[in-house]
Amino acid sequence: MGDLAENRTLQGKHMISFDEAFRIVLENTGQTAAEDIALGDCLGRVLAADVASDMDMPPHDLSAMDGFACRQADLDAGLTEIETIPAGYMPQKAVAGGRCSRIMTGAVVPKGADIVVMFEHTEARDGLVYVVKKSGRTNIRRKAEDARAGDMVLAAGTVLRPVEIAVLASVGCDPATVYAMPRVGVVATGDELIEPRQKPTAAKIRNSNSYQLCAQIQRAGCIPKYFGIAKDTPEAIDVILAAAIEQCDVVIFSGGVSVGDYDFVPQILSDNGIDIKFAKVKIKPGRPTVFGTKGNKYFFGLPGNPVSTFVLFEVLVRPFLVKLMGADYRPARIRGRLAKDVIKRKADRSEFRPVKLEADGAVNFFAYHGSAHIHAYTHANGIVQIPAGVGKLNAGSDVEVTLI
């Protein structure tokens, strides 16, 4: 192992903008392997292959209403009812002049019919069916109007919501080919940390970061694995890193990434052959942020303060994980109107601040006490980025809120 005191200076070099860090992270993202999983387990997964329809959709002309299937040319005269067609059965008789078939929603339209008249627009007299109101609509879903056999219905890279799962079911795509969920290792560093179930003694604090990160990883559609707390020694960090590399696709450290005497994470990563792409970002909170790669393994070092960890995951790590699963991250963003002036003490870095987006579109910034004040985020439903170089946002101006 090299001279840690000397080599840790790599952390202070090459501070880059947040936009540059974001670009580097996404440009160095691979993809997880594809796997086939049951349709019922597909929610939130990302398609790894295009999906084509195996049949015309719908496969026949279908009735969009309960009513009478008949010919438009016969609507001015009484019609003789010749059969009833429920959904799921093929018509047995064709509709000819002066005849109609009682038909249910979703049933196959009989040959000869070019309109379905709603029951409510008809009346029965003297054993015949009369149309008493004309709507001008045929009420027929035409064969293949949604898709033809062989048409691509969903593209690779699509995130599967309930509607996409319905489409997969309709074309018989079960199981579906999706990208595997990344396994993400979480490691906390710091001699001051204890587990939440323990009572802190002097100079000790509970480890909240790891549980926050595991929850964020789950919400991103990935599989978290918590490796515990590493003591502030190179040897302890090295041992946990080796285990995490073996079991995970991505490893996230919280703490130990700054320039203090006990911040060993960046150097340990480097000593293990990990190519560190950057180690310092012009961002608040979260300046000492590390990203590195080694083959198809990826490594993040995030600051130890919980707000920094939370924000950096949402704005940098989460987009990376989504792309690793084959999709583009498109967070929900809404434009709002600032309720009050917002002033930055320093404008040299991009700053991410918690906000509350109100129902009327007003955006309220919270008084928050820095990167350890995670409690402020319990009242927030969004984050606003104040770009570098901007020292003040005026009340009434539009801002973009990323919902969290």
Helix-strand blueprint:
Blueprint: H1 4-7, E1 16-17, H2 18-27, E2 34-37, E3 51-52, E4 62-63, E5 67-70, E6 80-85, E7 99-103, E8 115-118, E9 122-125, E10 128-131, E11 140-141, E12 152-154, H3 162-170, E13 176-179, E14 183-189, E15 193-194, E16 205-206, H4 209-219, E17 223-230, H5 234-247, E18 250-254, H6 265-271, E19 275-278, E20 281-284, E21 290-294, E22 297-302, H7 306-324, E23 333-338, E24 342-343, E25 350-357, E26 362-365, E27 382-386, E28 392-393, E29 398-403
Helix pairs in contact: 2-7, 4-7
Could you characterize what this model shows?
With 404 residues, the protein is an alpha/beta fold. The chain has four domains: 4-32 and 181-324, MoaB/Mog-like domain (Molybdenum Cofactor Biosythetic Enzyme, Chain A); 44-55 and 148-179, Alpha-Beta Complex (Molybdopterin biosynthesis moea protein, domain 2); 62-141, Molybdopterin biosynthesis moea protein, domain 3 (Molybdopterin biosynthesis moeA protein, domain 3), CATH 2.170.190; 333-403, Beta-clip (Beta Barrel), CATH 2.40.340.10. The chain has helices at 4-7, 18-27, 162-170, 209-219, 234-247, 265-271, 306-324, and strands at residues 16-17, 34-37, 51-52, 62-63, 67-70, 80-85, 99-103, 115-118, 122-125, 128-131, 140-141, 152-154, 176-179, 183-189, 193-194, 205-206, 223-230, 250-254, 275-278, 281-284, 290-294, 297-302, 333-338, 342-343, 350-357, 362-365, 382-386, 392-393, 398-403. The strands form nine sheets. A six-stranded mixed beta sheet has the order 17-14-18-22-21-19, sandwiched between helices. Strands 23-26-25-27-29 form a five-stranded mixed beta barrel. A four-stranded mixed beta sheet has the order 6-7-5-8, with no helix packed on it. The chain starts with a helix and ends with a strand. Mean pLDDT is 91; it is low at 1-12.
